[in-house]
């Protein structure tokens, strides 16, 4: 049995990494082989059978996913979709003051009929009506494929779409919505209850952050968790407490087991034997808590693992913990073969595997020592996984978890769940219980913020994402967990050292090598220029200046993945949010030697205007010069953009910001033949108001890069712009298609172009 399960796991795991799926005859052959090999009564036969079955299931799942995807010809069309709201809407306030409701939508019909296929949609609604789970709606929408930004070091949204089975992403058009039914049945009542509990917590007299945490751990409503709070919890290594997963399910199941055991003992005194009651009570309470969480992927994994352990125990077959863990992995992978694309799969099963490993060496320890030993070494063992998935690790994770796991598990979560039950039953006691649950959070969050303000650099440290460094660190952690002699422990510490080395030390190359990276930030701009340890950032992408922005989600993760801890120069071309939203964020976490901008940035102290003619040079590296603006007061916002020319040896690169026709003519008039460029970042994301023939015939760039969003509503890059670029012989690349684009300039060599999305191609992209 164990061989068969190992084979299934090994067969499924690699399929999600394939650049393209095998043809269907191969999967059919694999399924046939699996059936044939099952009759081979040897461990190797069962291993091969499991391997063939795993491949067949994963390929069939991937093929089904691709078949449901929105067709290319339906992208951006005005479509009519009918179906049911299938998740708790996540409400957020947009920079313009509108409220966005984002929710999963199970489509039963899509019109026109040639666009039929997508079943699970992720929709955004900006209208006045409140969306309630379980409602049936007819929406007029503009859909896109489930596309994600592709950048080194940042979260892979497209993998998350594939993992969760999202077939299309879209926005509800104004005036095209019709409520078909208010909802009924178990699904509606279930989600309605979750919504009511979330609303009740929002009405409490508590700080917004405390409300957000209570909603997250009670009903898995994370809409109130802003970027600042998430980063704060990440710094202390306790952000996992906000995700209802194995830890929470295990704690609730443990409480159920204790209650069931107490009742079983009382029944036994009355002459009634109920040995099944503790396990059954644990499973029932865990399922109830998972229902409050909306049966998310994390809770599904945890429930599968819990059910396997409990059923094995109730059956009395004496199944080992390793077999139970393997069986849980098989169940999870058969349900969703793409679950390994997310960090949750590896962290969940990795944590349980480490706990089982620790249990082998903890016999005879006292309870308190065992508790400290477990949490300390769990943090150590999970550090390589954290480095691999998140590019960093908390230096206080062990200490913070020793405090917070018991506090959240035995105080906050039980009180919150009892409060939710009281609210559901109409008992007035719920208010006091939620206040008690919130009390530790109200007092600990301010302390955490103070520590983060003074110690951000040592709370959370960037770690190497290199595969070999992570693997060595994982082996080192396992050695440290062994009751080994001191020389073995010293060897383990040496093996872990590469994890702490900044990747930049190995990645920066010679000082003469210059890399220019145009990051994929959607409809915006962010460019990173680096030579050795000198770094310039030109624009920071869009978003909310005081909330979630591209600096948090793309720029900073990229810089940290490259071991970059400070900037030589930050240039904000102009104040439009798609270029400047992350400036405050970047300045708040990284030392910046020089700040230049096309116009003053609200809330950003210091810095100076870009002035045409200002030039500087990095020793042994590229030279820089601003070609515009010249501080003319009559210029509009776009024409105030800092136009930056970068010269690397004989190559010239030009960053134009958002300048338009009039400013382009001024550049041609003033600079003339000095405008000849080899590489060009197309102005204004490819808008028809820029990139005139007058400018391009002078520049004649060999390469033109368009930084724009996939299927954006502006239609960028405009077909006329693309035609003009091709007319002058430019090769056109787009971040929307290629992801992050990195250009390497080495002396005596032709520039090399790395297209991140293509280099990391997967079949689900």
Any key phrases for this structure?
single chain, 765 residues, alpha/beta, OB fold (Dihydrolipoamide Acetyltransferase, E2P), Metallo-beta-lactamase, Chain A, eight-stranded mixed beta sheet, 26 helices, 24 strands
Account of the protein in words:
- The protein contains 26 helices and 24 strands.
- It is α/β, with parallel strands linked by helices and 765 residues long.
- Among the domains are: 2-68, no CATH class; 72-183, OB fold (Dihydrolipoamide Acetyltransferase, E2P), CATH 2.40.50; 505-759, Metallo-beta-lactamase, Chain A (4-Layer Sandwich).
- It has an eight-stranded mixed sheet. Strands 16-17-18-19-20-21-22 form a seven-stranded mixed sheet. The chain has a five-stranded mixed barrel with strand order 1-3-4-6-5.
- Helix 19 links the parallel strand 12 (534-538) and strand 13 (567-572).
- The radius of gyration is 28 Å and the shape is globular.
- It starts with a helix and ends in a 6-residue tail after the last helix.
- Mean pLDDT is 83; it is low at 504-509.
Topology:
Elements: H1 2-12, H2 24-37, H3 43-68, E1 78-85, E2 90-93, E3 99-111, E4 120-125, E5 136-144, H4 157-164, E6 168-172, E7 178-181, H5 185-203, H6 208-219, H7 227-235, H8 246-269, H9 277-292, H10 297-315, H11 321-335, H12 343-359, H13 367-390, E8 392-394, H14 397-425, H15 430-459, E9 460-462, H16 467-481, H17 486-500, H18 503-507, E10 514-518, E11 527-531, E12 534-538, H19 550-561, E13 567-572, H20 577-580, H21 583-589, E14 592-597, E15 608-609, E16 615-617, E17 623-628, E18 643-648, E19 651-655, H22 661-671, E20 679-681, H23 693-699, E21 703-706, H24 719-727, E22 731-734, H25 735-738, E23 741-745, E24 752-755, H26 756-759
Parallel strand pairs: 4-6, 12-13, 13-14, 14-15, 19-20, 20-21, 21-22
Antiparallel strand pairs: 1-3, 1-5, 2-3, 3-4, 5-6, 5-7, 8-9, 10-11, 10-23, 11-12, 16-17, 17-18, 18-19, 23-24
Helix pairs in contact: 1-3, 1-11, 2-3, 5-6, 6-15, 8-9, 8-10, 8-14, 9-10, 10-11, 11-12, 12-13, 13-14, 13-16, 14-15, 16-17
């Amino acid at each position: 049995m164990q061989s068969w399960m190992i084979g299934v796991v090994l067969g499924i795991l690699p399929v999600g990494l394939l650049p393209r799926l095998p043809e269907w005859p191969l999967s059919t052959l694999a399924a046939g082989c699996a059936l044939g090999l099952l009759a081979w009564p040897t461990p190797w036969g069962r291993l091969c059978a499991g391997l063939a079955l795993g491949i067949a299931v994963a390929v069939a799942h991937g093929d089904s996913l691709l078949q449901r995807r929105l067709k290319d010809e339906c992208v951006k069309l005005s479509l009519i979709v009918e179906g049911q709201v299938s998740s708790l809407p996540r409400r957020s306030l947009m920079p313009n003051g509108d409220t966005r409701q984002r929710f999963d939508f199970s489509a039963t019909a899509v019109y026109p009929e040639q666009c039929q296929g997508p079943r699970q949609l992720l929709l955004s609604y900006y209208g006045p009506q409140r969306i309630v789970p379980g409602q049936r709606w007819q929406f007029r929408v503009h859909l896109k494929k489930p596309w994600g930004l592709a950048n080194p070091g940042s979260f892979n949204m497209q993998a998350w779409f594939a993992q969760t089975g999202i077939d299309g992403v879209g926005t509800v058009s104004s005036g095209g919505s019709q409520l078909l039914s208010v909802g009924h049945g178990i699904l509606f009542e279930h989600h309605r209850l979750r919504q009511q509990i979330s609303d009740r917590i929002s009405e409490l007299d508590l700080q917004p952050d405390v409300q957000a945490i209570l909603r997250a751990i009670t009903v898995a409503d994370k809409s109130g968790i802003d970027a600042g709070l998430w980063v704060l919890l990440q710094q202390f290594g306790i952000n996992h407490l906000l995700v209802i997963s194995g830890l929470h399910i295990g704690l609730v199941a443990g409480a159920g087991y204790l209650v069931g055991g107490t009742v079983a003992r009382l029944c036994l005194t009355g002459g009634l034997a109920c040995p099944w009651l503790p396990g059954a009570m644990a499973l029932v309470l865990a399922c109830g808590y998972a229902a409050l969480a909306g049966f998310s992927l994390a809770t599904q994994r945890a429930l599968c693992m819990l059910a396997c352990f409990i059923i094995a125990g109730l059956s009395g077959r004496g199944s080992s913990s390793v077999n139970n863990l393997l069986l849980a992995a098989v169940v999870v992978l058969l349900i969703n073969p793409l679950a390994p694309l997310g960090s949750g799969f590896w962290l969940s099963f990795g944590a349980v595997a480490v706990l089982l490993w620790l249990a082998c060496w903890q016999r005879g320890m006292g309870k308190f020592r065992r508790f400290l030993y477990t949490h300390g070494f769990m943090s150590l063992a999970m550090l390589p996984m954290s480095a691999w998935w998140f590019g960093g690790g908390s230096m206080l994770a062990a200490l913070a978890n020793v405090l917070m796991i018991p506090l959240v598990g035995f105080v906050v979560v039980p009180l919150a769940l009892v409060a939710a039950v009281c609210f559901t039953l109409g008992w007035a006691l719920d208010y006091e219980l939620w206040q008690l649950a919130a009390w530790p959070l109200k007092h600990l969050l301010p302390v955490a913020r103070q520590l983060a303000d003074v110690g951000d650099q040592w709370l959370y440290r960037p770690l190497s994402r290199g595969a070999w460094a992570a693997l060595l660190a994982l082996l080192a952690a396992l050695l440290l967990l062994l009751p080994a002699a001191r020389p073995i422990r010293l060897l383990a510490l040496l093996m872990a050292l590469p994890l702490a080395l900044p990747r930049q030390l190995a990645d920066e190359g010679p000082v003469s090598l210059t890399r220019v990276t145009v990051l994929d930030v959607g409809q915006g701009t962010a460019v990173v220029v680096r030579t050795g340890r000198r770094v310039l950032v030109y624009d920071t992408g869009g978003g909310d200046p005081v909330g979630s922005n591209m600096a948090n989600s793309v720029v900073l993760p990229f810089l940290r993945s490259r071991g970059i801890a400070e900037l030589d120069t930050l240039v904000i071309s102009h104040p439009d949010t798609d270029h400047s939203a992350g400036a405050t964020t970047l300045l708040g976490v990284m030392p910046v030697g020089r700040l230049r901008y096309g116009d003053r940035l609200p809330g950003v102290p210091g810095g100076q205007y870009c002035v045409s003619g200002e030039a500087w040079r990095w020793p042994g590296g590229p030279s820089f010069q601003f070609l515009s603006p010249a501080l003319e007061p009559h210029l509009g916002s776009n024409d105030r953009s800092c136009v930056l020319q970068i010269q690397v040896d004989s190559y010239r690169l030009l960053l134009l910001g958002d300048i338009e026709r009039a400013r382009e003519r001024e550049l041609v008039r003033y600079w003339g033949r000095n405008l000849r460029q080899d590489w060009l970042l197309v102005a204004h994301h490819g808008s028809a108001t820029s990139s005139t023939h007058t400018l391009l015939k002078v520049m004649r760039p060999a390469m033109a890069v368009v930084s724009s969003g996939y299927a954006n509503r502006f239609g960028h890059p405009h077909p006329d712009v693309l035609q003009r670029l091709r007319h002058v012989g430019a090769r056109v690349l787009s971040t929307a298609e290629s992801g992050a684009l990195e250009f390497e300039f080495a002396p005596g060599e032709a520039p090399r172009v790395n297209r991140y999305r293509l280099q990391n191609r997967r079949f689900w992209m």
